[in-house]
Amino acid sequence: MNPERVIENGNVGPVNAALVPRYAGPATFARLPRLDELLGGTGSADIVVAGVPFDTGVSYRPGARFGANHVRESSRLLRPFNPAQDVSPFAAAQVADAGDLAVNPFDIEAALQTVDEGITALMADGARVVTIGGDHTIALPLLRANARRHGPVALLHFDAHLDTWDTYFGAAYTHGTPFRRAFEEGIIDTDALCHVGTRGPLYGTADLDDDARFGFGIVTSADVFRLGVDAVVALLRERVGDRPLYVSVDIDVLDPAHAPGTGTPEAGGMTSLELLEILRGLRGLNLVGADVVEVSPPYDHAELTGVAAAHVVYDLISVMALGAGAAPGGPAYGEASTTYGN
Ligand SMILES: N=C(N)NCCCC(=O)O
Ligand SMILES: [Zn+2]
Ligand SMILES: [Zn+2]
């Protein structure tokens, strides 16, 4: 089958939902073309979605190895125009799904190597990569690959957890430790780091001292609740400036009511609207790479977590497609709110 696709601006987009039912056919992210299909046709992609089926680094519930395909399945209803950012991301950029990296489930360091090499290869033509699935351990090789291209990157880390701990059971590479390793390796820009959505119990106050020493700012989920989305966006934009920016989204940043399908849930999290509005507020920043991790489908219900993650990816791709320097806009800033109605 060669399904009818939406083609805009010469870019090959999703399967046309008016001609082929949304629930038909194999899942790719947003029903976009596979990268290998595209390579046979128009050439390369500007933005690539890649799956990382890996959860050997988790400290509690497993299942994130199934996250990538769950996000793909949950992304079938996405439509081509994103009114919240006033952009058709798949028309503004060629976006494709590269499938999954074949990572070793038994050897964490080998897996990290495979992720680094796989993402580096996908970035070779200048594409920016958004990964889906996997546990948070994989943020380390993703940052390594991006820093090799861009130098130490600014990092906005959306997560209930700090993930700057040192070791678990003596192991250095786990889902609770990627950002400490990234600091030690000098691959993140210590002038432009912030956690967002942090909450929940810690091991001790030293966790916060260490984290501050690495250069991280913290916007807790309670801060989002009290200050509101616009104030948080202003603060993050100020911190990042025009630096190359990497965004890492651990889906457990959302309240378990919004994202039950995850491995280390913490009460008192952000709503999916708050997260999406903050991400939309990053429009115009130089977003070079992103991940959405810790989606564990066995603990999900009614695709709640999968749908939330799919929308997060969609808004991240929209920010990337608009590119650095795009005017801050969208309903959050008032001007484009007439996109709906009026
Ligand atoms: N990265 C995630 N999701 N969780 C880290 C939790 C580490 C712990 O068990 O304390
Ligand atoms: Zn995490
Ligand atoms: Zn987390």
From TrEMBL:
InterPro entries: Agmatinase-rel (IPR005925), Ureohydrolase (IPR006035), Ureohydrolase_dom_sf (IPR023696), Ureohydrolase_Mn_BS (IPR020855). CDD domains: Agmatinase_PAH (cd11592). Keywords: Hydrolase, Metal-binding. The keyword Glycosyltransferase does not apply. It holds the Pfam family Arginase. It comes from the Bacteria. SUPFAM superfamilies: Arginase/deacetylase. Belongs to the arginase family. Agmatinase subfamily. This is Agmatinase. It comes from Tersicoccus solisilvae. The lineage of its organism: Bacteria, Bacillati, Actinomycetota, Actinomycetes, Micrococcales.
